[in-house]
Sequence to fold (180 residues):
Amino acid sequence: MVLINADTLAGLDEDPAELSGYGPISPETARSMILDALHWTPLLQDPTNGEILNVGRTRRIPAGLKRWLRARDGTCRFPGCSVAVTHADIDHTTPYSHGGPTDHSNLEHLCPKHHRFKTLGHWKARQPRAGTIEWNSPTGRTYTTDPALDSLLDGNTGSNRFPAPRSPVAKGPGDDPPPF
Fold:
């Protein structure tokens, strides 16, 4: 595995790269190795905390990205669901089979029941911004869920270290309760 920053790969700087199990290597050597590789997977890393945010086109989600998603989501991201992430699947919002990347802005936790609703097409989901999920119900109503981490960052933690379950925000005609 060759670790090289994007600017060095593009030739914009000459920072050393790293060959896993060996140590630092010159930028020229790293570029040459990458050009000779039959397959390579780029990783996008958050420079502030080192968490992996994107792994390109792969179904496998690396441990660092899983940790980030667990912290961000807290529970199943379906409106009104409070199933903990430990009992939920990580799902591609835009399916991997339809070109969806393995990226924090295209992944969310769904409990098995709601994962099935989405997979079968009963409910449709999209992420207009990373972590915010917009759901379209079979009746045409739209519900938005925000990540649990947003309430933690806003200081809205109360006395409990876990955020309260998210309340869905309905957009549509009338004020009747959500159809779950």
About this structure: The chain has a mean pLDDT of 80.
